[in-house]
Amino acid sequence: MHILKNLRRSLLLLPVVLLAGCNTVLMNPSGDIAHQQGRLIVVSTVLMLIIIIPVVALTVLFAWRYRQSNKEAVYSPDWDHSTQLELAIWAAPLLIIIALGAITWISTHTLDPYQPLRRIDAQRAIPADTKPLVVEVVALDWKWLFIYPEQGVATVNELAAPVDRPILFKITASSVMNSFFIPALAGQIYAMPGMETKLNAVINKPGEFEGFSANYSGAGFSGMRFKFHGLNQGDFDQWVAKVKTGKEGELNRALYQKLEVPSEREPVRHYATVAPDLYDAILNRCVDSSKMCMKQMMAIDAEGGLGKPGAFNVATMQSWQPDNINSPKRKYVTAMCTTEE
Questions:
Q1: pTM score of the predicted model
Q2: 177 and 93, same structural domain?
Q3: Sheet (strand 207-213) strand order
């Protein structure tokens, strides 16, 4: 009997022991956006528990009160309606749904990832002259590429940002859809080829945080992780200086085409410089200069298409890149378009 009691006590304590080492980063994040999202989870959960807890408690109470051995319980097999009970059953959930709807509506607009930040944290507004740090994010198979256009550098599987400075992430992918997620910073945002999504966020505490893909994307998905460093401004400047001394040299189109070949568990890489038009070429699916960019295709479509007279002319075509008159792109447009001459 003593052994059974100890075993039962151990089983009750087992979940506590297993959860003791968990880092509840979603409930204790270091970024203001993630903090607001965590609070939203708590508020929503509490509102739903207003219904769940009484229902569970009454289920146990009814099972105990109306058990077969309790002869004192009132048995009313013909009872079928109570106005007061109906009001309680329907009014409480309705009020909770209204409250959740209002919270969802407000939070959806307040925490819109495309919307520039309004504050650094709950106590501090963003100064009027603050310029966000722009980071261009590319999800590759199976690694992350981060381009800093202002600093002119790029990294693989490592990200850093100054504390209390707004960050604007511009996010795309090379082949399949992925999901950019740093739990301590903000909620996940999808990365899709040929499209750009955005995330505005801020990190409020220095430290090293985990980043990863939250969307399954193939064999190397489990290793598609990176470290995000929250640094004070001085340390961030030193980090940028360190990246500029990287042995990888310049990240140009040719090197990017080698980098985007699928590979798993890639080490951190630093590129001292980066081609200024690389991210735009990745986004428009034309890193290979022999291919027509998506924005050029859309420009043709907006003019009515190549098959319509006057839709496109040689003068417009010659304003395009590349300048090589013998490129397949230019030969295709020259052959297909109807000129005005």
A1: 0.78
A2: no
A3: 158-162, 225-231, 207-213, 178-182, 186-191
